[in-house]
């Protein structure tokens, strides 16, 4: 109820998506579906393209939590395509800052890794320009691949640590390396 009262549409969508994920994990899939639908409606109200993409990532995460893996991957993949390759100078996402683009790509990498789609995320995560966002993405990918390929996970962890060295503040550096 409180999440549904947030004023900013993207904040409301993100909070509702998180509430849907919690409800799904608790086994209340009917309620989770209703809350996820409200999150989708809130995301559709968002005018800012970066915030709308961020809300779409939250919706993908909620879809995965509610057991709708195909929808989760579809949302994440569509958002990734829009963030990585805006359709032209008139595309709203072409005008977001490099930092915002890196933030969204990092969030997408973390979400895809959590969905079991680490290979998709690995296609773009090492190329994220912002070192903090690249470190976060590579850390999540290392954690996601550690059970199936230790050597590969170690290479991703090294990539995360290498990216983190470029972060000046020690607290920010440490935060970037926590999966």
Describe the structure.
There is one protein chain. The chain is built from nine helices and no strands. The chain has helices at residues 9-25, 29-45, 49-65, 69-84, 98-114, 118-122, 131-145, 150-164, 170-176. The mean pLDDT is 88. Helices cover 70% and strands 0% of the residues. It is mostly helical and 179 residues long. The two termini are 29 Å apart.
Termini separation (Å)?
A: 29 Å
Residue share in β-strands: under 5%
Alpha-carbon Rg, integer: 16 Å
Low-pLDDT parts are: none
Give me the number of helical elements. 9
Overall pLDDT: 88
Structural class: mainly alpha
What global shape is seen?
globular
Order of helices and strands: HHHHHHHHH
Keywords:
mainly alpha, 179 residues
Task: Give a brief description.
With 179 residues, this protein is mainly α. 70% of the residues lie in helices and 0% in strands.
Secondary-structure blueprint:
Elements: H1 9-25, H2 29-45, H3 49-65, H4 69-84, H5 98-114, H6 118-122, H7 131-145, H8 150-164, H9 170-176
Helix pairs in contact: 1-2, 1-3, 2-3, 3-4, 3-5, 4-5, 5-7, 7-8, 7-9
